[in-house]
Specification:
alpha/beta, Rossmann fold, 2 domains, 7-stranded mixed β-sheet, two-stranded antiparallel ribbon, 9 helices, 18% strand, disordered N terminus
Length: 271
């Protein structure tokens, strides 16, 4: 999602018992996999416990729904596998912007969409630490493949280790470098894409990827409500996102629904 780490109820200020804080537990005995074992980490800040969102770690963002409803949705969504839960904790511990993790609700949505659409080739723009790619890989058939684009070596290292530890990791290929270069050099027609990086270039990604998507294929854009700021765009990033929403809504080549899941998920099907 590149915005928010979905934080279980125990992380919130309303019901935090610091003796039971999951971020303070000793994960050294965890049996998930060696590369994702975690040692105790520092106590989270109050902002983290209160589901804080950030633009690039700076400007605060707001939940689109009430915190209690958000927590309810989290608790009533199928849990992700242990490996993904460990990856979320490692991301929280090691990454500069851990709030960019996709998280449970949207991750399980991605898996479900993949299971329903049964794509053979998925393109992802924005790997981060690999949570979303692994979520989609879970839903792929055995012959399915994901190409995911990343530019940050630190994020790529964590993602690569997570993929190596996963039974689904062999379905994922990381391509480092500018995502548009990867898109323009694709050899396969795209069945499904998930775009979650470089927001100001969203309109360009839309046209480039749509032209390479098969009829009936699906494009998924994340953060398309941008904490509600799209209603009154006042900066370049927000204007780019709002412009793409307008383009999609009027584009006769596609049909779409803009979901209020997390920070807004634009689900687009090419006619």
């Amino acid at each position: 999602m590149r915005l928010l780490t979905e934080i279980p109820p125990a992380y919130t200020s309303r019901n935090m018992d610091h003796n039971d804080d999951p971020l303070r537990q000793d994960f050294s005995q965890e049996k998930l996999c060696p590369v994702l074992q975690l040692q105790p980490v520092r106590q989270p800040t109050p902002d983290v416990r209160r589901y804080a969102h950030f633009f690039n770690g700076e400007e605060p963002m707001q939940l689109l729904v009430d915190e209690d409803i958000d927590r309810y949705a989290f608790n009533h969504t199928s849990p992700e596998p242990d490996l993904l839960q460990a990856l979320a904790r490692r991301t929280q511990k090691e990454m500069h912007d851990p709030q960019m993790l996709t998280g449970r609700v949207e991750g399980r949505l991605l898996k479900l969409i993949v299971q329903l659409c049964r794509p053979r080739f998925i393109l992802e723009v924005g790997t981060f630490t690999g949570y979303s790619a692994l979520s989609m890989a879970e839903g792929l058939d055995d012959d399915g493949k994901i190409v995911t684009c990343e530019i940050d070596p630190a994020a790529q290292k964590v993602a690569r280790e997570a993929f190596d530890a996963s039974p689904f990791g062999d379905r994922i290929e990381i391509r480092m470098g500018p995502a548009l270069d990867t898109v323009r050099n694709l050899e396969s027609e795209v069945d499904l894409s998930f775009i979650d990086a470089d927001k100001e270039r969203y309109p360009t990604y839309y046209e480039e990827i749509l032209s390479r998507t098969r009829r009936g294929g699906v494009l998924i854009f994340d953060n398309m409500l941008w904490s509600g700021r799209v209603v009154d765009p006042r900066d370049d990033t927000t204007r780019a996102i709002a412009a793409l929403n307008e383009t999609i809504a009027r584009d006769e080549r596609v049909e779409n629904v803009l979901l209020t899941v997390r920070d807004g998920v634009q689900l687009v099907r090419k006619r």
